[in-house]
Specification:
5-stranded antiparallel β-sheet; 9 strands
């Protein structure tokens, strides 16, 4: 019985030691710096669609390296809110464009950052021109859903940007009609 209590006590001390070691060493903490993102800019435009992008720094404010495993650009403009525009999004590392819409995992060292480009393409629907569709535009959120891992278990987080109708129409030179 004494031996069993000794083994149990040693196991508890071992676990506490591991916990203290990890606590002292810290963990990763990826922070998207939304307040300093670049303004949206036009990447391309034709009669039916416009593609916009913004660059966001993802900064690792933690004490350990982090891995950004996946990232998805999810524009939230359901047809119930406004059916004149269809929106699609993608995310990629700045300077490393991909044609397959795949987000390539990357490591962010502690106290360093990496720039991520969020791109959204707005396409006119229902036989409208782009100008007609944008003139009735509404504000909508764009979520960057990202998965990170480090000393903590892998988990998903969300960074949200609001693209306002006013900002969009000003950028594209379209007059907004208040419905």
């Amino acid at each position: 019985m004494v031996i069993l209590e000794g083994i149990l006590g040693a196991a508890v001390l071992f676990c506490l030691g591991i916990f203290a070691f990890i606590k002292k060493r810290g963990k990763e903490k990826v922070v998207p710096k939304l307040q300093t993102r670049t303004p949206f800019k036009i990447e391309s435009r034709d009669e039916k669609s416009v593609t916009l992008s913004t660059t966001i720094e993802f900064f690792n404010a933690g004490k350990q390296s982090a891995m950004l495993v996946d990232a998805i650009c999810h524009p939230l403009l359901p047809f119930e809110q406004y059916d004149g525009i269809a929106v699609r999004g993608k995310v990629e590392r700045e300077g490393k464009p991909r044609e397959d819409d795949y987000f390539e995992a990357l490591v962010i060292e502690h106290q360093e950052g990496v720039n991520i480009v969020a791109t959204v393409t707005l396409t006119a629907r229902k036989g409208m021109t782009l100008e007609e569709a944008l003139s009735h535009m509404v504000d909508f959120p764009i979520e960057i859903v990202y998965r990170e891992v480090g000393r903590t278990p892998m988990h998903w987080s969300i960074a949200r940007i609001i693209l306002t109708a006013e900002e969009l129409t000003k950028l594209t030179g379209v007059t907004l009609i208040k419905d």
